[in-house]
Specification:
Elements lengths: L6 H22 L4 E2 L4 E2 L2 E7 L6 H17 L4 E5 L1 H11 L2 H9 L6 E6 L2 E4 L13 E11 L8 E10 L2 H16 L2 H7 L3 E2 L10 E2 L1 H20 L3 E2 L5 E3 H7 L1 H4 L6 E2 L10 E3 L4 H9 L10 E10 L15 E11 L4 H19 L6 E6 L13 H18 L3 E5 L8 E7 L5 E10 L2 H4 L4 E2 L5 E2 L2 E10 H11 L13 E5 L5 H13 L4 E3 L6 H10 L4 E5 L1 H6 L1 E6 L3 E7 H13 L6
Parallel strand pairs: 11-15, 17-18, 24-25, 24-26
Antiparallel strand pairs: 1-3, 2-3, 3-8, 4-5, 5-6, 7-8, 9-10, 12-14, 13-14, 15-16, 16-23, 17-19, 19-20, 20-23, 21-22, 26-27, 27-28
Helix pairs in contact: 1-2, 3-4, 6-14, 11-12
The chain binds one RNA strand of 75 nucleotides through strand 7, strand 8, helix 6, strand 20 and strand 23.
Length: 591
RNA sequence: GCCAAUGUGGCUCAGGGGUAGAGCAAUUCACUCGUAAUGAAUAGGUCGUGGGUUCGAUUCCCACCAUUGGCUCCA
């Protein structure tokens, strides 16, 4: 039996399922060419090259054929061929992608195949012994995918699927997926009126509605306050600049495609401006404003910084991938001997903030490194500079005991990064927070400090975010809390529900009193029954519902109903305000 | 940008070559109500936009725009 808790066995099981998928496709459409078909985190996929496109109906046909193959209980047989035999074998089958794969294998590689009846695939394995061992599977979607992940190469058709050792587990997984989709911020955020988009404003340019704006305002004020308490200096720098600035920073060479440019970038005779895609070169001007001494360092510059990036049209996603966004930006300018301490400070700050909003536990850490051979000439600087920066970061991360994965070729063009990653409800991962070491840009901008011995030195720079991008963070918060944000960042913390019109005046008195204490409170003053008001407050994900009727008016109280604890009984306005204050102070979370 | 799917009143969706329906929401009126939907009535859509085919298009075709899931790229 397959032990599905064991990653190797799970992958093996699903990998074999992908072979069954390929066999089914080859039986149905023999002209289809095979590319690759690995197991992935929650299932598997197989990439095909076929003239006609696969339709949703085709998936059903393929599933039916797969069921047959499983029923036939075909044994999988492994065999090896020499390189020339292997190429010859695949060429005869017309599998040009497989030939390319074999050609790219190292000379000393063992070239193995797995044969199941009328189907043979190039594969390192391992595999199940027989197709009959597959008990439950489902094809989930069709997508385009470039051959070898290269956008210059042909786009193939990828079929995604998943498989499990029994039907119950499959159903459970599919149901979990459905449940997760209900938390999709892109749906919830629109329904609950956190944000919206308008066709004629443009892709990736969401409008934050009052609720979204309020939560983000709350977060921004908090971030700015916490950062200033920790010795950061808030700046406000321009949102655009002449191309001259980006030439110095390197953005013009490395990032032009991602920038919104005003004017003709090729026309040197005329002025050309661009919206900023990053804050770095602007904030450096703060440092450069006068001569700096070693005593000034570290200088921790922060900014609630709006950025513009001309993402390609297919890449936008709700509030997670947008073209205009605001990040909790920071550039720490420091002496080399301060690198470790300041990096640690950045990481602690990010962890504190992610912890306060409740996202930290679901984060993973990625050490993003450069690829010295990157064909697109993505990186600046010398191999020596990169080695210094990367080994410094490695030492720091290891000293701090950070558990991280390596992100090869994921570095910024100016240095390595520690990326704090988060997954959305579909399992897609994006960067929430990033902390980067930069030993290049200071020199480009002529940033120096006068050291103890009177000599001029070049500082190091840490680029970092603390809470990351506010839009993206809001998206993840909506997904994490299924639309019901923790009290301290909830746009509406309490709703007062008068029993009848006679209690509305008192309701507004209470609202005023609570607002004086900094609480965000609304009144449902419609002439509706209390049951309806409660229902709708619940649908609006309101945490505290304060009911006011004759009894409460008389006693000067409110009847408190909590979304999480139901009826809390009558209490004074002061008591409920104290209780809420306490929750706000403690960043209390209900999940 | 690439591959695919989708686009019908505020929302969820039905329909289909002869200019459109349901539920919820909205509005008005009545009810003034004690912890998850009071009732009745009314209004609301050139069926994403622009072309084409047709006697006639929301329905068929093309282009564009937007949304969704992938790929590539990235916070």
């Amino acid at each position: 039996m397959v032990d599905f808790n064991d990653e190797q066995q799970r992958k093996c099981y699903r990998h074999t399922t992908s072979h069954v998928l390929a066999q089914a496709v080859k039986r149905l459409w023999p002209d289809t060419k095979l590319a690759i078909g690995p197991a992935i985190e929650d299932g598997f996929y197989y990439d095909f090259d076929r003239e006609e496109t696969f339709t949703a109906d085709d998936l059903k046909t393929i599933e039916a054929e797969m069921k047959k193959i499983v029923k036939e209980n075909i044994p999988l047989e492994r065999f090896e061929l020499s390189r020339t035999e292997a190429i010859d074998f695949m060429e005869k089958l017309g599998e040009s992608y497989k030939v390319e794969l074999i050609n790219d294998l190292p000379m000393d590689a063992v070239i193995s195949f797995y044969k199941q009846g009328d189907f043979t695939d190039l594969c390192a394995g391992p595999h199940l012994d027989s197709t009959g061992e597959i008990k439950a599977f489902k094809l989930t979607s069709i997508a385009g995918a470039y051959w070898r992940g290269d956008s210059n190469k042909k786009m193939l058709q990828r079929i995604y699927g998943t498989s499990f050792p029994n039907k119950d587990m499959l159903h459970e997984y599919l149901e979990k997926l459905e449940e997760a989709k209900k938390r999709d911020h892109n749906k919830l955020g629109r329904e609950l009126e956190y944000f919206t988009t308008v066709d004629y404003i443009g892709q990736g340019l969401p409008i934050l509605l009052p609720k979204g704006a309020r939560t983000i305002q709350r977060l921004q004020r908090w971030v700015e306050d916490v950062e200033q308490e920790r010795g950061c200096l808030l700046t406000k720098t321009p949102l655009m600049a002449k191309r001259d600035l980006y030439r110095i920073s390197g953005h013009w060479d490395h990032y032009l495609d991602g920038m919104f440019v005003m004017g003709d970038p090729q026309d040197e005779a005329k002025e050309c401006y661009a919206l900023r895609p990053m804050t770095c070169p602007f904030q450096y001007q703060v440092y450069l404003n006068r001569q700096r001494s070693y005593r000034d360092l570290p200088m921790r510059l922060t900014e609630t910084s709006t950025l513009f990036r001309n993402e390609e049209s297919g890449e936008m996603h709700g509030l997670i991938r947008v073209r205009q966004f605001t990040i909790s930006e920071g550039h720490y300018i420091l002496r080399p001997d301060q690198l470790e301490e300041e990096f640690k400070e950045c990481l602690e700050l990010a962890k504190f903030m992610l912890g306060a909003v409740g996202l930290l536990d679901d984060c993973t850490f990625r050490f993003s490194q450069w690829d010295p051979e990157n064909p697109k000439n993505k990186y600046e600087g010398t191999a020596e500079q990169w080695d210094v920066a990367q080994s410094a970061m490695k030492t720091i991360l290891d000293d701090l005991g950070v558990e991280y994965s390596i992100g090869f070729d994921e570095a910024a063009f100016y240095g390595p990064k520690l990326d704090i990653q988060y997954k959305n409800v579909y399992g897609k991962e994006d960067t929430l927070v990033t902390i980067q070491i930069d030993m290049l840009l200071a020199q480009k901008f002529g940033m120096e400090y006068v050291d103890t011995d009177g000599s001029k030195k070049s500082p190091y720079i840490i680029h970092r975010t603390s809470l990351g991008c506010y839009e993206r963070t809001l998206a993840y918060l909506l997904e994490k809390y299924a639309g019901c944000l923790p009290l301290w960042i909830a746009p509406e913390q309490a709703r007062i529900l008068p029993i009848s019109d006679a209690h509305v005046d008192r309701a507004y008195e209470i609202k005023k009193a609570m607002e004086k204490r900094g609480l965000r409170v609304e009144v449902d003053d419609r002439s509706e029954k209390i049951g309806k008001k409660i229902r709708e407050a619940n649908l609006d994900k309101i945490i505290y519902m304060l009911v006011v009727g004759d009894k409460e008016v008389e006693e000067g109280t409110v009847a408190v109903r909590s979304r999480f604890d139901a009826d809390l009984g009558s209490m004074s306005v002061e008591s409920i305000s104290d209780l809420m204050d306490e929750e706000v102070k403690n960043y209390t979370k209900h999940v």
